[in-house]
Amino acid sequence: MLLAWILVGVLAPAPDSDPDARRDQAAAAFADGTAAFERGATDEALAAFERAHALLPHPKALSNIALCLAELGRHREAIVALESAIADGRLTADERTLAADHLARSQAALATLRVTADTAVRVDVDDDAHCTAPCSLVLDPGAHDVVAPGWATRLQLAPGSITAVHVPGTTTDASADAHPVTPPSDRPPRPPPRPARFGPLGWIGVGVAALGGAGTLGFGLRARSLHADYVASPEADERRRGITMRNLTNASIAVAATGGVLLVTELIRWGVARRRGRDHASTARR
Question: What mean pLDDT do residues 143-148 have?
Answer without folding.
Answer: 93
